[in-house]
Amino acid sequence: MSFKKFNCTSEAEEIKIPPPRSGSAKLLMTKDVTGLPEMPLCLLMHTYQPGMQTEVHSNPPHSEILYVLEGRARFVVDGETYEADPGCAIYMPSESKHQVINIGEGELRFLTIISPALPKRV
């Protein structure tokens, strides 16, 4: 495979999350966005408004690494709670039941690396 560079912000598809959850996810790098069928992972950027939270869920067979860029997050993973500020990362194994909550007064922005890559646009 040869080196490829992508302008993630201009090529990314944005998915709006409607109220009451209010947020968005940008598909920065996926197999579809890059055109690389052998790509082993994907990269998303999430923006959650204050108070937004996901449902408790799991994503087998996908493991995730979440990296906080801005704001304050609470991650609940298999019943254990972790709070994270910018610069913190958390790993979520594929079978884990987890939840993300914006506990800050401003937007929460974080990156998610998912492996194996999502097969199509989500």
| Biggest sheet record | 6 strands, antiparallel
CATH topology: Jelly Rolls
| Assembly state (oligomeric) | single chain
| Portion in helices | under 10%
CATH architecture: Sandwich
Fraction in beta strands = 35-45%
Radius of gyration over all CA atoms, rounded: 14 Å
Instruction: Just give the CATH class.
Output: Mainly Beta
Approximate shape: globular
Topology:
Layout: H1 8-11, E1 13-17, E2 23-29, H2 31-34, E3 42-48, E4 63-70, E5 73-77, E6 80-84, E7 89-92, E8 98-102, E9 108-115
Antiparallel strand pairs: 1-2, 2-3, 3-9, 4-7, 4-9, 5-6, 5-8
3D architecture notes:
The chain is mainly beta and 122 residues long. It has one domain: Jelly Rolls, CATH 2.60.120.10. It is 7% helix and 44% strand. It has 2 helices and 9 strands, in the order αββαβββββββ. The strands form 2 sheets. Strands 1-2-3-9-4-7 form a 6-stranded antiparallel sheet. A hairpin with a 5-residue loop joins strand 1 (13-17) and strand 2 (23-29). The mean pLDDT is 84.
Short description:
By secondary structure, the chain is mainly beta. The protein has helices spanning 8-11, 31-34; strands spanning 13-17, 23-29, 42-48, 63-70, 73-77, 80-84, 89-92, 98-102, 108-115.
What descriptors fit this protein?
mainly beta; Jelly Rolls; 6-stranded antiparallel β-sheet; 3-stranded antiparallel β-sheet; 2 helices; 9 strands; 7% helix; 44% strand
